Amino acid sequence: QPARAVDLVEEESGAPGEEQRRWEEARLGAASLKFGARDAASQEPKYQLVLEEEETIEFVRATQLQGDEEPSGPPPPTQAQQKESIQAVRRSLPVFPFREELLAAIADHQVLIIEGETGSGKTTQIPQYLFEEGYTKKGMKIACTQPRRVAAMSVAARVAREMGGGGEPLGIRFEDCTSERTVLRYMTDGMLLREFLSEPDLASYSVVMVDEAHERTLHTDILFGLIKDVARFRPELKVLVASATLDTARFSTFFDDAPVFRIPGRRFPVDIFYTKAPEADYLEACVVSVLQIHVTQPPGDILVFLTGQEEIEAACEMLQDRCRRLGSKIRELLVLPIYANLPSDMQARIFQPTPPGARKVVVATNIAETSLTIEGIIYVLDPGFWNKQPTSFQISCINIASANQRAGRAGRVAAGKCFRLYTAWAYQHELEETTVPEIQRTSLGNVVLLLKSLGIHDLMHFDFLDPPPYETLLLALEQLYALGALNHLGELTTSGRKMAELPVDPMLSKMILASEKYSCSEEILTVAAMLSVNNSIFYRPKDKVVHADNARVNFFLPGGDHLVLLNVYTQWAESGYSSQWCYENFVQFRSMRRARDVREQLEGLLERVEVGLSSCQGDYIRVRKAITAGYFYHTARLTRSGYRTVKQQQTVFIHPNSSLFEEQPRWLLYHELVLTTKEFMRQVLEIESSWLLEVAPHYYKAKELEDPHSKKMPKKIGKTREELG
Ligand code: CDP
Ligand code: MG
């Protein structure tokens, strides 16, 4: 069994500064902390029985931290099997008593904001009420949008079942399967956007319900602008904006002070637990915690939040494996994954009732936070991370609003417990308050590409819920023109249309498109994936600095950092994607696993943008040229006074961690600039100035790439690593 990276075990000091440092280290993976070991002696015997040689995770109850009394919630539930008819279940949902009131409000107002706790029946019931009320007469349709495809499919299937006949006679369908007779359409927000292309006034819809509005996805935000416009000249169109959180005032203001309809929630108390110390490997910690809950806690199902398919599959495998080893020593544990690409029959399984005597553990992406409600969940396990799909590959810490939503999932049917795999300190000091809307997180270039692909040209006057600054919008337009995504009239080009299909930064998409010309898409995909998990590839434990640095230098290849990333990934793939290999080479296994995940997703998109799979067979010049084709906008040259960016003449420095730090090549490109003490270029690649004319003749003139003092260039300019500290 490969040893978990265990380097330092520290006594708990309890000092906040100390805890902050540990949390930072665990999060960044800079050091690996051995979890739970120090308290092995004080564990109750039953923990040890189950987990045998495994270590345990220690949690502290939040109320103990605050010195509060324990809450006295209702007694734990017996898992009474719901044998009632489907109609009785419908009548039992919190939204049901408000059916008439809600329909009256919809009749009275063109735009209505609906706020209600997750699981109250907004998504599945309200469109049915509208159908029953006759909103689909005369061939009109009702649209209900979801940010995630899985959620749209799942609720469509559920509603079809509730309305009887499997959806066929009535036509409640999800996307592609819709026919003429379809009256209720559950779709992703992106699909409704595309509807605008064929039907700009949405004439065949009587009601549009933008659901899960609180998620503020890019698509949802753009829908708001478009729908607000349509609603003005179609007074009979009803617009519903449904949200799970309390922040509905924003939506109301945007829609000219539309009224807010509140569905009172019901929620049982949830007891919160935090880990005493940060966890270095949250996946491992999850698996151990699930088993701990299973063995020590009364009946009730468990919900675990992870970030993506790869991770979920790994966790499920580990859980099943350990259950098998424990055999009859533990009760039956049903392990059920849910993520976007899971086949729908497998997805349906998470909703099936748990057999008596067994326990179910659902390992889910963020979809289970508000989009899907699974009955019977009493325990929530929250490692504190998410991947804000679909337009980002970045994994980040969740925020307080999300953490509270997740905890709330444990209190739907009875009093529950939420185990957070982070410390109370981290919750209080590290997490942000709420989600930053995607439109503010993503590159504005992507927003522009999306709007242009929807035929919206006047971006300056588009009604954004959160308008981007004018200057930033102009810069994005200029950059897209330089990248060849827009023509001189500001219209989308063929390559711009393809770039709009890729959920990555425009420069990165341009690089991927260029890999077709240079026949190196295999390598470029790897580089793109590695750049997406940026800056957390190598780790450097304090007591093994020399070893770690040596390991890193061993990956260096002439040409620069992008090739180093490629080299790391290739060697890791050759090792069979081994965790042991990562451990030995001071490479973060978790980051590599993510890179693999991203790479697979990107590979799946290649066909759509008409790029075939090909390899450069070691001819790295081709890889470097393809990268240059995407990043010619980010170039710098060495002058007498150090590096200057080519166009803006800004003074910049190579990051001390770069493989080119000592080399100081004359021409280079960088992935990004980070401002710390200085403007540092991170992930740099050596290029030749002639390549710039080859990949971007419209952008560079031969004259500006001439090197006036090419002969007299001093050998080395810039400070050494030590001088920079
Ligand atoms: O949208 P909201 O969160 O308000 O609630 P909903 O998704 O309409 O869920 C109402 C009920 O339907 C919950 O009790 C869910 O468990 C159930 N449901 C289900 O059984 N299967 C689905 N695919 C979706 C919802
Ligand atoms: Mg919903």
Automatic annotation (TrEMBL):
Superkingdom per UniProt: Eukaryota
Region of interest (Disordered), ranges: 65-86
Question: How does this polypeptide assemble, per the annotation?
Answer: Component of pre-catalytic spliceosome complexes. Component of the minor spliceosome, which splices U12-type introns. Interacts with GPKOW. Interacts with TRIM6. Interacts with RIGI.
Chief localisation class: cytoplasm
Q: Which UniProt keywords apply?
A: ATP-binding, Cytoplasm, Helicase, Hydrolase, Immunity, Innate immunity, mRNA processing, mRNA splicing, Nucleotide-binding, Nucleus, Phosphoprotein, Spliceosome
Q: Which ranges carry the Helicase ATP-binding domain?
A: 103-264
Helicase C-terminal domain: from which residue to which, for each copy?
A: 289-455
- The yes or no answer to whether the keyword Cell membrane is present is no
Protein's UniProt name: Pre-mRNA-splicing factor ATP-dependent RNA helicase DHX16
Residue ranges the record marks as coiled coil: none
User: What are its GO cellular component terms?
Assistant: catalytic step 2 spliceosome; cytoplasm; nucleoplasm
In its UniProt record, which GO terms are filed under biological process? innate immune response; mRNA splicing, via spliceosome
| Primary role | Required for pre-mRNA splicing as a component of the spliceosome. Contributes to pre-mRNA splicing after spliceosome formation and prior to the first transesterification reaction. As a component of the minor spliceosome, involved in the splicing of U12-type introns in pre-mRNAs. Also plays a role in innate antiviral response by acting as a pattern recognition receptor sensing splicing signals in viral RNA.
Q: Which organism is it from?
A: Ursus americanus
Q: Which GO terms describe its molecular function?
A: ATP binding; hydrolase activity; RNA binding; RNA helicase activity
Q: Does the keyword Protein transport apply?
A: no
Whole-protein residues included: 309 to 1033 of 1033
Location of the protein in the cell: Cytoplasm; Nucleus, Nucleoplasm
Tell me the protein family, please.
Belongs to the DEAD box helicase family. DEAH subfamily. DDX16/PRP8 sub-subfamily.
